[in-house]
Structure prediction request, 399 residues.
Amino acid sequence: MTTAAQARSLGARQAMEQLNADASQFHIWLRTEANAPAQRPWFRETGLAASGRVAAGRVGAAQLKPLAHHWRWREIGPYLDRIAEIARNADVSPIEFAERQQFLLTNPGLGGRLQVTSTMRCAVSIYNPGDVAPVHIHTPNASRTILSENGGYTTIEGERCVAARGDLILTPNGTWHDHGNDGADPVVWIDVLDFPLMEFLDCVWLDEHYPGAIEGNARAQAVTQSDGYSQRLYGKGGLMPAFTPNRRGFGLGTSPMFHYRGADVRAALDDLRSEAPDPYDAVTLRFVNPVTGASVFPTLDYRAMLLRPGEATRFKRETAGTLYQVIEGSGTTEVSGQTFEWERNDIFVVPGFAWRRHSNRGAADAVLYAISDWPLLEKIGQYRAQGRLEDDSVVELAP
Prediction:
């Protein structure tokens, strides 16, 4: 380009920027640069550092990307004790004005948004003896993973699920549910929701006007199903009841089985401990919708992973983001050039496109629960995974 042409180009750019400044009062932006892709092709970058780097320029750089991050229980856990102490001594319970007694995890790459990945929100809740979250219904799909030995209860569509450590309790979109603690000690659990996705789609709403019978002043729904209802109907592998509609609540494509017991999950992993593991995911079980065999939610997939003593996986990366919860044991995960030394109750996130490898260097088993958004990406044709072989070459993996 000639010097005169460069000057004309610079003048046009400046003129456009000035015009843009004027236009900003009307909340519009005049394009002043090429619409470059938001990120570089992750699958071309074969190094172990973070992949899918954000492109330069206003268009690309405006994108927020979740980062790999590790929340250590020894650092975040004490805040639950403080919340519980405030709740015990306050004239008004935080549940009254904040709806929950919890803290939410924020990914440092997402600018303070209340989410851990682009599609997932994660909170850690504590309920003192006698606490009840009133019955409500909402559009986001949600789950709670129980961390305390006594996990309180969640009543969903008339089924009271009394929980223990390691249990996974689902509250699919369109199901009436309430939570509480009728034990003698505080209970703690991890809440995960696809809230950011629903928020992006302008599809978030909540209703507290329960149409059925209410028990007590705490506005809990009446229990209409006997204990263990989900397990009796859907807890026998390979068998499905043919005398019910197999749909609970108004949500579509969600699991009618609400309560997955941690003791059952652990026993199932133990039964498989002598099997040859997947080289990238070790011995892993999926929590599935027993009616369809699909993920428990159309948007999120849940898995339990067993890492035996001395076991390490190979490096893998995928377009889906994954949130991990440490149920048992300790170990390390290498991701995006970082090493997370995790232990019981820790939580960490592996964003999409990032290489990760798990290791258990200890003398005891390690059990991780993993939640990812691969069902969503698969539905829109964007799920893809790669692995590294022993010679460090990169191979495509089947979804």
The chain has one domain: 69-391. The chain is about 20% helix and 30% strand.
